[in-house]
């Protein structure tokens, strides 16, 4: 079986500005990001025949296709579970193109989470989590749900708030190098972190991602075609989704081992189909809606053993020059929170050698989607 | 305060709670308890279930202390505790709730500093709402 390995490549990336408030609506932002990605690839919109996005994406295929002038579409897919779907959008397009269902795929996400509503404020629906078991008791927001796991993680493994600070700091330091990042001109200190207001103890303000308006997109074609594109191809080396047995989403409280999650499932499949190992990853873009997702993901994707994710962050490990440079555009914590799509595009920039915080000679990159929900991941290589 | 948005599978839990009973859905064929409630048993695929009483004792597996921004009713009570209780009779079942001073007391009735991972707790029921609450077990 030929499989997905290096069969497709990302050849175009595009994004809008990121801000707390952008004047244009989500549909317009989606069009701008998609057209920017196609222009970057040197591919005309009428050649696009495949689309993939998130189920939470508000701009549907019909709206996008008629606005930007796509050709006849033969494959379109949407992935559920919020930020868990980010990498899966690329994975679905890679599968469609590798199997001949389509030739030019576009994945995108456009969201006004900065100026738009907070989903958890809606009290009329169950939300993605089984709300009847949690919300009456005041476990209202995603941060509360993850903080319950974070408290247990700190308790069980002896990890500390300093470990979470290491994550927040690495992301902020990279954002301080990235003029497009929301937090470009806002350095973070340990004192600021340790004295910040609580959001849901044990998590403080800086353990939470930003609330951002913005849109991003990327273009995927076969590796054969990629050789003729404007930019150096970034190959999709391996791709996986992960929904573990007896998993419960962000309220993963009802199984034997709540401190392992979808990352472990996605990782098994990801590495099984890869020619390299976690030790060979030059740079990682790990979904960071909340800082505790990083130690959990470091364990899940095999960079360290169970319970060692906190300690892994010590000694500048996540900084440029460290063991595993992390979220080099600033991530969801400090660049922009657009359901993790900026992590995909930043992975592409690293392997093109064009990141604002370039890891010298980077040739392999792990990109992950949200941990704590049914997730997905990509291994990219030059 | 929010009331449970009850679904078909979950309704019996709340009905028993309103009567002052803590019960969990259990497979009528293989005897495996499951939570949250669902149509069939993930172990033996049986659609037959019953609601088995549990002791109402457990230990705090984890807890959080939310601060604003919150929904208005909850912001008024913040900071309050939310605990996750691992049931003594069914350790895979961990119920979200609040540690309170006594049955019927609000969710901010206990100083958050008194909440500890591992503390033994006992279920009580709020006479006004019928919702389960938790108090520290007297040692």
Key phrases:
heterodimer; A: 382 residues; alpha/beta; Peroxisomal Thiolase, Chain A, domain 1; 12 helices; globular; B: 139 residues; mainly beta; two-stranded antiparallel ribbon; 7 strands; 10% helix
Percentage of helical residues of chain B? 10-25%
Cα shape of chain B: globular
Domain tally of chain A: 1
Q: Can you list the strand order of the major beta sheet of chain B? A: 5-4-3-6-7
Oligomer: heterodimer
Low-confidence stretches of chain B: none
In DSSP terms, counting alpha (H) and pi (I) runs of 4 or more, how many helices of chain B? 2
CATH superfamily of chain A: Thiolase/Chalcone synthase
Structural class of chain B: mainly beta
Radius of gyration of chain A: 19 Å
Give the tally of structural domains of chain B.
1
Find the count of extended strands of chain B (DSSP E, 2+ residues).
7
Shape of chain A: globular
CATH class of chain B: Mainly Beta
CATH third-level topology of chain B: OB fold (Dihydrolipoamide Acetyltransferase, E2P)
Q: What is the name of the CATH architecture of chain B?
A: Beta Barrel
The arrangement of helices and strands of chain B along the chain is HEEEHEEEE
CATH architecture of chain A: 3-Layer(aba) Sandwich
Instruction: Using a beta-carbon cutoff below 8 angstroms, give the protein chain pair with the largest interface and the number of residues from each chain.
Output: A-B, 38 and 39 residues
The amount of helix of chain A comes to 25-40%
Report how far the terminal alpha carbons of chain A are from each other.
23 Å
